[in-house]
Amino acid sequence: MAGIDTNSPIPKYYQLKEIIRGMIESEELQEGQLIPSERELCERYGISRMTARQAIMELVNEGVLYREQGKGTFVAGKKVQQEAARLTSFTEDMRERGMAVSSTVLEMEVEPAGPVVARFLRVDEGERIIRLKRLRNADGEPMALETSHLLYDVARGTLEVDMSKSSLYEELRRGGVSISHAEQSYEAALVGEADAEVLGVAPGSPALLIERVTFDAKGRAFEYVRSVYRGDRYRITSVLRV
Amino acid sequence: MAGIDTNSPIPKYYQLKEIIRGMIESEELQEGQLIPSERELCERYGISRMTARQAIMELVNEGVLYREQGKGTFVAGKKVQQEAARLTSFTEDMRERGMAVSSTVLEMEVEPAGPVVARFLRVDEGERIIRLKRLRNADGEPMALETSHLLYDVARGTLEVDMSKSSLYEELRRGGVSISHAEQSYEAALVGEADAEVLGVAPGSPALLIERVTFDAKGRAFEYVRSVYRGDRYRITSVLRV
DNA sequence: CATGTATAATGGTCTAGACCGGGTAGAGGA
DNA sequence: TCCTCTACCCGGTCTAGACCATTATACATG
Lengths: 242, 242
Description:
The structure is a homodimer. The first copy, chain A, is α+β, with helices and mostly antiparallel strands. Chain A has helices at about 10-25, 40-45, 50-60, 90-95, 115-120, 150-155, 170-175, 195-200, and strands at about 65-70, 70-75, 100-110, 130-140, 140-150, 180-190, 205-215, 220-230, 235-240.
């Protein structure tokens, strides 16, 4: 089992979070199963209890674990049943579907905002924007073509990160962005010729076109994403309430 | 200003949470305003920093506050009121979009459940089902082709109703069905030849395929609907939260 | 005037303990 | 056999510090 690197710039609690997440994904820990207690994690990884606690509490907040006083901490069931559509990144979405994520960065540029992007992000035309176009693969096969437009000030930290390996949202969170909510739209469309080749489907194949504007805790729109999902591989499910 | 009661069984961090919440509600602290720093709260209320931190972090998780390293902690803006996707009928959906609804009943039959319908409705194959196929128009033009499969016992009252004029959900509610929630999936597809003619589009046009299983308050699945929406006319928007 | 630079403040992470109340399983007694 | 009590483990709360990175500001230097 991987340990915790004290000299790493990555916080210990974060390392522990990833370790626990890994154990759940590898099914070393299964749904409903008791995970090691806080005190046992402290001892095993040589960290203090408050640090172990922070890792666990964040996973509880994310719905990955749940706790019962006096009993212990358990792996939560898949929460597909529970909630209506949640705001997730592609990485998180695929992880919940149990698929392996990989990405290819096709374009990453700093450029002035055009009229469409400026309107969605509520900034002036010409404002500096990072445009990140990625091919997103699930289980090794193309799933979506995603073009994000990000406020330069918010996302400039990601320019030095290899976005083919990182989750944009995780990077942004690490960079101090507090992601709050998004307005998203879904539309059926056909795959165009250029996109078809990249996605590995025939032109005119069905596609789900998803547009999203994401807001931070201050209510500022910091991201406009336009994604083309392969209709033959992607389907959205959600629970609706009256 | 109220203080913190050390002898109270209510945890200190929780008392502080309520104090801060109160200051926001009384507008002593306003949107976007800096709140006292962790260290200042410690001193003012005679608690340790980790305790003050817990109060603040929970309010951050709840979206009441947001933090910026090196700057401070601020009061977040009021949350967007708009809701995530609600469970609505076609009639309600179009009414909210400000479009006029009309329908044509194409088929309405009582028939035994086939394997697919039986699985979705969690009944045995051969169980009596009402199948209702309608063309749904918005502002006089075809919008969707909708095929509902309903448990006979639940929906037999609708057999005597002119479903080209009535809302299915309103009729069911009138018949005593308490609609609770639904599991819905969205998928991109192409319009087939038969459907194309009815929908008034070319075969191979983009379509949004929506499947829904609707449950009543007892948790019984009573409806399975499969709808084909015209991709050129229909788009779904919703607000997602973290 | 522009440009660094020291300083102080903030939140972020972390430690090594402490006591509390809830839950459970085993020991001992009826 | 069955019940009760107790010891132990669990998470929940809390302390009093520590060092770090980020940020703003005031000041000194070119």
